Amino acid sequence: MTFHQFAYRNVIRNFRIYAAFFMASFFSVFVFFIYSMIMFHPEIDEGYLGNVPIGGLVFAEIILVVFSWFFIFYSMKAFLEARAKEFAILFHLGMEKRQLSRLIFLETTLIGTLSIACGILFGYAFTKFFFMIVREILMLDQLPLYFKWEPFVLTAAVYFSAFVIISIISINFSPERKIIDLLKWYHFVNINDHFSKKRAILAVILLAIGYVLALLTNRVNFYPFVVLIPILITIGTYFFFTDSTSYFVHYMKERKSFSWKKSRMLSIAEQTLIMKNNGKMFFVVTMVSAAAFLCVGLLAALSSYTSKYDQLNPLGLIYKGHIDNPYERAHIRSILNELELKGLSYHLTRFEVKKQTSSYTNYEVEVFRESDINSLLFSYGYPMVRLDSGEGMFIPYSEEAIKKLSKRTVHTVLKENNVPISINQVYPELIFPSSIVSPNAIIISDEDFLRLKKPYSGYPHVEPGYHLFAFDIPQWLEAQDVGLSIYKQVQKEYEKERYGLPFYFENAGLNYSFVLSTYALFTLVGLLVAAVFLLAAGSFIYFKIHTNLDSEKRKFDVLKRMGIADSEIKRLVTTQLFPQFFLPWGVAMVHSLFAFLALQNILKDIANISIVKEIIFAFSFIILLQVIYFYLIRWRYIAHVKN
Q1: Does this model's pTM top 0.90?
Q2: Is the dihedral of CA 604, 393, 381, 468 positive or negative?
Q3: Residues of 247-286 as b/e, b for ≥16 C-beta within 10 angstroms?
Q4: What does pLDDT average to in each consecutive run of 10 residues of the chain (643 residues)?
Q5: What is the per-residue DSSP string for 234-253?
Q6: Is 488 strand, coil or helix?
Q7: Residues 6 or more apart from 267 whose CB is under 8 A from it?
Q8: Using CB atoms within 10 A of its CB, is residue 44 exposed (0-12), middle (13-18) or buried (19+)?
């Protein structure tokens, strides 16, 4: 038997340990190859596929590569630990360290080459189906399958180099051990349960602070909090698993009235070792799982926003400008000409909005004329507004505002012109997008509007009002190319520190195409990356369990000789495995829950949408998968220790 044959048979003989590593590596290669097929598609023009930025796919590729390298490195470490006794026998028979390094290198290269070949083969076979899904999501006319060498070479080069480099690092940087230590590897039990009480308490404090900041997150403090919160949560999670869990188990062990009942002493003693020896692994699984949950949750949030976009943005085009805007006539004429050329039907409503000071709040209020509002409502098919002199009506800025304002009654005076207004009603539908109209906007009768002859008190330092042109377009999706030159001016001005244009333009169809593109990007990237993360998180636990499987079998053999029944052994196995599976995932789910509460606060401010139902559905599905995976591993674990 040659040396290469020996390496091959070692892989086949240890395939139980290699199986999870192979499947996770295979799936990573599979996803990476599919992304590469999209990136190198011949119909991609200027870095875009439809409206999906290819930069997002490149970012996903980088995440996968970095994570895959870390995953392969961890797997290699687990393999070397699991085969310590085998290496001791080989050393005892005369194998040199150089020969063992070559053996491990050949085995890793073999399993890596197999996973790369299978990942690319199945990836290309699945690409046609994947392109069909992408074509429907992005609403493309066609997205044909193609064959180019770039995706194949890129995938093979990235992952083969990962297997080669990490196998060399794992071999050369492994600590030297004596043969007797390797032979006793499975008998070795680390009874050092040392922990720091200060770090245990600090972990809880850091996590609590991070959660509180997440609840306080809004549009004002979003940027500093989005940097600070992950730092607090990461440090707190690390200390939680390295010290807090050990401290809690130690506390339970000291309560003899609890720990000395039935077989709890065995379970608590086992958990003492599990929590201390696997703290770093639990930390990695938690952070990886939290990243997967965030991918799924962001996808759910985008799905909710996309489905409600037309309700939140009832107008196709909106042009808003100062009273003395010199570009108004040319811009409106240009927009009308473009709509005519496209053959799109539309209804144009021109508003003259005046600012006044309310005596009720002493703040400015935007005042709309009843007849102008009714012109737009007629186009919507909504009920008309009927107001008498002295009456007013709130204009809602969100669905939540409709509920709040319907319960309010305000008696105010428009101070600049001494016009008394009584407001005790709100229009029951959204008329304008929240980004266009101020939260302090009201409708008054035409008679009262004509009495507003004196300008706002802040004039001329503050604009006394504005002109608003509302285009109600039934086929607003087809109008996404209308007014592009104006839109580009507005976007370019937003990049500056201060907005200086006398006008603002918004195209709902164009904005929706960007929203849909982002949603499509997260659909392409989020689901597959989340699947890779979840599979790898489960594989970390799988590796750790199978690394110590032989020693666990010996331990349960001793317990059976002592007279413990099979039912009690099953209970002990469940007690032992349950924290390893559900504690990291539970902590990751709590992290994700507070992250989504922060996201919900932001979305409430921006678009007033709720993602609660989507998040509950996504989390329920993930929990179901984890429970199935737990019982599958538990079944195989019990079968092995009872054999």
Answers
A1: no
A2: negative
A3: bebbeebeeeeebeeeeeebbbebbbbbbbbbbebbbbbb
A4: 66 66 76 80 59 62 73 69 69 71 78 87 85 68 79 88 78 56 49 70 90 83 82 89 77 62 56 66 78 72 66 80 88 90 87 88 88 89 89 84 83 88 88 80 89 83 87 82 85 76 84 71 66 66 64 68 68 74 82 82 63 72 78 76 66
A5: HHHHHHIIIIIHHHHHHHHH
A6: helix
A7: 572, 575, 576
A8: middle
DSSP string, 76-102: HHHHHHHTHHHHHHHHHTT--HHHHHH
Q: Which residues, including other chains, have CB under 8 Å from residue 287's CB and lie 6 or more apart?
A: 234, 237, 588
Counts of helices then strands in the chain (DSSP H, E): 23, 11
Q: Which residues of 301-336 are buried (b: 16+ CB within 10 A; e: fewer)?
A: bbbbbbeebeebbbbbbbbbbbbebebbeebbeebe
Q: Are 399 and 430 in contact (CB under 8 A)?
A: yes
* C-alpha to C-alpha distance for 217 and 225, rounded to whole angstroms: 7
Share of the chain residues as helix, strand and coil, in percent rounded to the nearest 5: 65, 10, 25
